[in-house]
Automatic annotation (TrEMBL):
Record protein name field: ABC-F family ATP-binding cassette domain-containing protein
Keyword set, alphabetical order: ATP-binding, Coiled coil, Nucleotide-binding
GO molecular function, one term: ATP hydrolysis activity
Pfam families, sorted: ABC_tran, ABC_tran_CTD
Length: 612
């Protein structure tokens, strides 16, 4: 495999700490790397050094001649005044980018709902992030460096990105490195793991599951100080081995070694003890929704006729697109909302808490030290097993050291604020806990620690997250907020016995039809969604539309064939005897004919796409 990019003896230091010290590594064709480590240990700094965006204090980064490197940073450099279309495809004409299947796939997968003619400066944070990712993925680079690419992507978007990366390069070609807290994504797309810690980068063979195994083997031999961290990793490994078969079918996942390491590790949750303890705290009645509907305008329901029973100790994951009605459902459960029809029955002992995305629980404490925020909380956290954790021990479990206690809340990092918020909520002694996207700003080690803490939390848990690993790890049942089958415009709740995979299948089956890449007027999305109001027209035009799509598929196949022929001719001409003028002239004439055919096929494709 050809060498693409390398780093030799890199050192990067700030006045108060050394980030990287003597790091040497490299990318070869075919490398698929996941980068993990605690927040602040230098994962993003490493990618910026490799991309040439940061200059090391010593050492150097080298690239093979002609190798192109692209990076998705956590902050983009998009032109505020540029349109979305220009940011993604530049000055390319419609027929140029629309003829490229990869560009079409990227646009459909990431920015189908983003106005094509909107300026970058007018976009929301999530739309802007997806636009920056789309702009990178439509470019032709040999090495991709992606820093938190799954941020602002829902479950479907993360799944699409995983498939794109797996198919982007042919086997043994190209390379990419990914920094992300999404452990499912890491295990799905990477074959090598780099752990950044204590100024070094330690390589492990395999994706996240294989990395966990290697970590357990390494930590078993570590000092007593690291024993608790090792136990968490053993627990994580036990869940990975006992979970879905897909996780353990990786060829480099050493099954026998894993089984030996986890032989004495119990299941992650004692469901019998959990139910018994939760029932003692909550009683048998928690929350019951009976034909509950919610309408904000008095006419159109957001949720329609939802009937659902939450019991003591239930662990439930909620899936759904942004704006589908998940927050409305949670409002019914917690009592923040009342139904406009139907009813909600809540147990008399229910005390619900909602871990919000906006850190509202910390607002009164921004000027206070962490120690002063925790000091008034005298209640202990009592786990399912009967162990009691003091507020200080809860903070320790969530990664806070004694040095953090004197830090003002406003000076904490995003991940530290999120963990302090969780500690405050847990120490408030709720018995129904709602977690809304709790993985934001968390590294993989801290996520494992939080999951371990939640395993022993004795109550009913609802989790809303686009992180499918977290959902599968901490919940036992998944439900989806989905549009009604009768097309009424509102949503209802559906149980997912098949979990996240069933949700993705349902979404693919019911996804609204889109018109691909028609010429757009100002303000239109890159795809024009056909509304449910057009059902009559759709019924009448279904046969014609089916025929059009078949013709589009045929045109695409013919395009690919003619483009391949043109490429072969270019290669033939490059090696042809330059003295054979007649032969070169004949090849040139054939090439012109093929290029004319390609232009004609592209024009036909664009015309048909108008009516598809």
């Amino acid at each position: 495999m050809a060498h693409l990019l390398g780093a030799d003896d890199l050192r990067l230091a700030y006045p108060n700490r050394v980030v990287l010290d003597g790091v040497s590594l490299g990318f070869n064709d075919g490398d698929r790397v996941g980068v993990v480590g605690r927040n602040g240990d230098g994962k993003s700094s490493l990618l910026r050094l490799l991309a040439g965006r940061t200059t090391p204090d010593s050492g150097r980064v080298t690239t093979r001649r002609g190798v192109r490197v692209g990076m998705l940073d956590q902050t983009d450099s998009l032109d505020e005044a540029a349109t979305v279309g220009h940011a993604i495809v530049g000055d390319a004409a419609d027929h140029e980018w629309a003829a490229d299947p990869r560009i079409r796939s990227v646009i459909t997968g990431l920015v189908a709902d983003v106005p094509w003619d909107a300026t970058v400066g007018s976009l929301s944070g999530g739309q802007r992030r997806r636009t920056a990712l789309a702009a990178l993925l439509t470019s032709d680079v040999d090495v991709l460096l992606l820093d938190e690419p799954t941020n602002h992507l829902d479950v479907e978007g993360v799944t699409w990105l995983a498939e794109h990366l797996k198919e982007r390069y042919a086997a043994g070609e190209g390379a990419f490195a990914v920094v992300t807290h999404d452990r499912w994504f890491l295990d799905e797309v990477t074959t090598t793991t780099w752990e950044v810690h204590d100024g070094v980068v330690e390589p492990f063979e395999g994706g996240y599951a294989a990395y966990v195994l290697a970590r357990v083997e390494r930590d078993r031999q570590a000092s007593a100080v690291a024993a608790r961290r090792a136990n968490l990793m053993r627990k994580e490994l036990a869940w990975l081995r006992r979970g879905a078969p897909a996780r353990t079918s990786k060829p480099k996942f050493r099954i026998d070694a894993a089984n030996a390491l986890i032989a004495d590790v119990p299941p992650v949750r004692d469901t019998v003890a959990l139910t018994r303890t939760a029932t003692a705290r909550l009683g048998r009645d928690v929350v019951e929704l009976v034909d509950a509907s919610v309408s904000y305008d008095g006419e159109h329901d957001v949720l329609h006729d939802v009937s659902w029973i939450l019991g003591p100790g239930d662990r439930v994951g909620i899936l759904g697109q942004n704006g589908a009605g998940k927050s409305t459902l949670l409002g019914l459960v917690t009592g923040a909302l009342e139904p406009t029809s139907g009813r909600v029955k809540r147990g008399k002992t229910v005390r619900a808490a909602w871990l919000s995305q906006d850190l509202a629980e910390l607002t009164p404490h921004v000027g206070s030290r962490v120690a002063d925020v925790i000091a008034p909380l005298r209640a202990a956290f009592t786990s399912v097993g009967g162990d009691e954790l003091t507020p200080g021990q809860v903070l320790e479990r969530l990664g806070f050291t004694s040095a953090h206690l004197a830090t003002p809340v406003r000076d904490l990092s995003g991940g530290q604020k999120r963990r302090l918020q969780l500690a405050l909520v847990l120490l408030g002694e709720p018995n129904v806990l709602v977690l809304d996207e709790p993985t934001n700003d968390m590294d993989t080690d801290m996520l494992a620690a939080i999951e371990d803490l939640l395993d022993g939390w004795p109550g009913t848990l609802l989790v809303v997250s686009h992180d499918r690993y977290l959902l599968e790890r901490v919940t036992d049942d998944q439900y989806a907020v989905l549009p009604r089958a009768d097309g009424g415009g509102s949503a209802t709740l559906r149980h997912l016995p098949g979990g996240v995979e069933e949700y993705l299948t349902l979404r693919a089956a019911s996804r609204e039809e889109v018109r691909p890449f028609s010429r757009r007027s100002s303000g239109q999305s890159v795809t024009t969604i056909i509304s449910g109001k057009d059902e009559d027209r759709l019924a009448n035009g279904g046969a014609q539309r089916h025929a059009t799509r078949k013709e589009l598929a045929s045109l695409e196949r013919r395009l690919e064939k003619r483009q391949a022929e043109a490429l072969a001719l270019h290669e033939q001409m490059a090696t042809h005897d330059v003295a054979d003028y007649a032969g070169l002239a004949a090849l040139t004439e054939r090439l012109r004919g093929i290029e004319a055919d390609v232009a004609d096929l592209e024009e036909q494709w664009l015309e048909l796409a108008e009516d598809a």
